[in-house]
Each structure stands twice: as C-alpha cells, then as structure tokens.
Write a structure and sequence with these properties.
This protein is elongated. It is mainly alpha-helical. It contains four helices and no strands.
Length: 61
C-alpha cells in the first residue's frame, strides 16, 4: 500500500495491494509474462490507512 502511494500516488485498500505484493515477492515466477492485478481503493478508511502506512490522503506525511 505504501509503495503504491509513494510511487504511483494511489490510495488502495489492502486487498488491492495483495496482487502487487505477490508479484514483487516472486518476481522470477512472473518474469517475461503478462500479469494483471486489480487495484481498487473504494474500501479505505482514512484513519486505518494512516495507521497502516503512516500517512493518509490529504494529511501529508
């Protein structure tokens, strides 16, 4: 979640970050392949998000 926020400016829910985390955890498995993961953020509680990644949208670092 933090990486997606820092590098792509995306606020995503935990389940959305899971697909990205899986690819990053085992890069060799997915190397040279087309990979798709759904990234969404409709289920994000701002206070919980702040606790999880240390910042929240609109609140700064």
């Amino acid at each position: 979640m933090r990486m997606l926020f820092d590098y792509a400016g995306l606020v995503v829910e935990p389940s959305a970050a899971l697909g990205i985390a899986a690819v990053l955890e085992d890069r060799d498995r997915f190397a040279g392949r087309h990979v798709v993961t759904i990234v969404c953020g409709s289920n994000v509680d701002v206070d919980a998000y702040h606790r999880w990644i240390g910042t929240a949208p609109g609140r700064g670092s």
